[in-house]
Structures are given as C-alpha cells and as structure tokens.
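DATA SHEET
Item: assembly model
Revision: 1
Owner: S.N.
Input lines:
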Amino acid sequence: MPADSEDVKGKLETLRQAFVNQLPDRIRELEKAWAKLDSEAWNFADFSEFHRGIHALAGSGAMFGCDVLSQRAKLLDNLLKALASDGEPPSKGTKRLIRDGLRSMKEAAAAP
Amino acid sequence: MSLQKLERVLCIEDEEDIRKVQAIALEELGGFKVLSCASGAEAIQEAPAFGPQLILLDVMMPGMDGPTTLKSLRTIAGLEETPVIFVTAKVQPDEVEYYLELGALEVISKPFDPMTLASQLRHIWELRHAR
C-alpha cells in the first residue's frame, strides 16, 4: 500500500541531508583526483573517473535542489565532455579552466 | 480489453543517490515493485528474472549508455516490447525526438519530482494502453 506522503518527504529530506553532508568529502576527493591528473602523465582512465564524479554531482545536485552547485558542475561537465571527445590531453588553458571550475564548485558546496 | 495493472518497474541509473530517490518514490508512493540496477550490464543480467512491465533508463551512463542498453534489452526474450522511458537532463526537442526514434515510449526530464514520479508513470502506462 502506498506510504504517507509526509513519510516519503521525510525520507527524501534525509537523503538530501546525507548528500549535503558528504559534499565536502566528495569535492576533496575530486580535488585529489585532479591534482594527480595534473601532475602526472595524462591518464585517460583516471580522467574518465574524474569526469564521472563531476557528472554525478551535477545530476545529484540538481535532484537535491543544490542548484548553484549543480549548474557549476554542469559547466565543468560540459568542458570535460568536450575534452573527452577531443581525445587529447588538456592544454594549460583548459587545465586552468578545470581548476577554476573545481574551485567554484567547492564554493557552492560550502553553502548548498 | 482490461488494463493490466502496473506493478514491476526496472530502474537503470548509475547515480546511487538518484537510484535511492527513484526507489523511495516508486515503492513507497506508487506501491510498485522496483528493481534498481547501477548499469546497463547489470540490468541485462537481472531483468529477465524480474520481468519488468516498464523500464526507466538513464541516458548518460559510463560504459554502456542508455541507447546502447535499450538495444541490448530489445534482444532479450520477453523484453522486446517492454516500454522504456528515458530519464535525462538533455531534453532539447531534437534530443527528445532522437530518443523517441530509438524506441523510447516517453522521456522524463532530470531532475524529476519524486513526489509525482509514480503518478507520472501510471499516467504514461494508462495512456499507452488507451492508444
């Protein structure tokens, strides 16, 4: 039998809160992943994993109403998508854009 | 012909957070039995035993994406005509047209409203049977 909608809202709010609480750790992991990508020979598998993490935050952020974070993640996601389709390591300029994108996501995650 | 009741929904979504939201929305508000799969490959393994009546399929997934998963599902006995609804943030008219051409019954945009997702599915289900 379908549950009471207030109970469901409560469960969804619990999920949202868990997502918000995890944001600092998730951003930190992405920063670490980027630092590794940026400092070593370009690794496409690691890049795909990094891109997946950004894409995930864009989607989940939108789902949980963290609109600014989601929009900033989406911008970075689009940049990474273009980079992935190029199939080439990023230029210095692109790397700078990625760093800026991560920083802006971190700022948004601090006040979701 | 009487309308078959919608009971079993397969959700294919790589994002764990979104899978949880879908499961709560569909099981608790819709009263559906839900099988959640994290990838197209997992869905292809699990779907035959579950026998979904309706499939919610994420478009952007690593490895096997939504369109590729749809093609594979169509080769499985019993799932050749199971209605598939794509769930995606990419809902420009040309993108929606493309998904429908691939054989999707409908497209639900992300982020969806979890409080109305179950009734949305039921509505799509009833419309399909009314056609």
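QC remark: Residues 14 and 62 of chain A are 16 Å apart (CA to CA).
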